[in-house]
Amino acid sequence: MNYKPVQPNERIIFLDILRGIAILFIFIANAYTFSGWYDLPEEIKSQFSGARLNSVIKQLTVIFIDGKWYSVFSILFGIGFVIQFENARKNNKPFVSFFLRRMLGLLFFGLIHLFFLWFGDILTLYALIGFLLILFRNLSNKKLLICASILLTLPTIHILLMVSFNFFYPEILFQKALAYLSENNIPFIMEEGSFDYYDYAQTRLDGNSWKQFFMLNFVMPLIRLYGLLYEGRIFKVLACFLIGIWAGRKILHHGLLQNRNLLKKITLYGFLIGIPMNILWAYGQVQSQEIWGIINYISYAVGVVPLACGYAATVALLLNSGYKYLSIFAPVGQMAMSNYIFQTIISIAIFYGIGFGLALDTTLWQVILLVIIVFIIQILFSYIWLKNFKYGPLE
What we know:
Layout: H1 13-34, H2 42-45, H3 51-64, H4 68-90, H5 96-116, H6 123-130, H7 141-165, H8 171-183, E1 190-191, E2 194-195, H9 197-206, H10 210-231, H11 233-254, H12 260-284, H13 291-320, H14 330-334, H15 336-351, H16 364-388
Antiparallel strand pairs: 1-2
Helix pairs in contact: 1-4, 1-15, 1-16, 3-12, 4-11, 4-13, 5-6, 6-11, 7-11, 7-13, 8-10, 12-13
């Protein structure tokens, strides 16, 4: 059995372009954490240059970027699964053992990224949930969409159950993380029983000790898992994978990328549902009443995936209409995992105290500008690399 990655002449350019665009917007979303902007108190944010511009950028990010492009990436993962499955079946080769090996390889890279570089890693989550896709490979398209719809309702049911029983079980992981910090004399502040995220961000980002950097990296996955469980991310990612399987079949066997009517419907309904719900989510984030916590959770759960589907369909429509300039994103998408991990390494070098230490001192518009500059360099690097090699450094 000699499996190889998809050959260059077999690639679907739409997938590479969409993956490249997703990598850009995921980088923008991640930059808020890398730079510490999420953890800055409002009174400090207001002192930065361009405070009004920063506020507008933040709201636009919440509405149009946060969560949406991770969902696009998840849908692409499901499409990739279908392509690999169809290739195996066409060549009369066993698929399950091959795919399990791929997930183990992805898990290996993900765990290194998670524990040694950055707690915001998505590769580990994708690999672990990816193992489950084997169970769905032979489901009909109708059953796939039914399962995806059910999974998309589970985050809301999940939070309502936690509220009803007053049992927020992810907090157990958070308390274990605090115990680890205390035992290892890593400074953090509790004010009136609440965790001071700004103080902890200073510890995490400003420190210039490699020892502390790695000690924090080993506990941050607990906080990451706390967040994933709290928001029901596992349900949403698996739902997007299943939507991706449906989309992949439609692309391979039913000409989805040329079906302008269906693409227009997906775009229309995706935007009609997604944009209002994400505006509600953005509005709710600046409200102080407790009820807005649940409203925010529900609006995020309901609005993210439809808007992600709308984005994917929009890119397909643009390509279908001859907007070939979007192919500039294809090289980045073709070596997406390499570029994703490189973004982490570059961000650590730019923002962390063990690097240039720009975190917590750089205004948001400057953070976004740095991201765009780095991404342009990634486009050039990817183009040059793929001129000389078939696959990215980590692919």
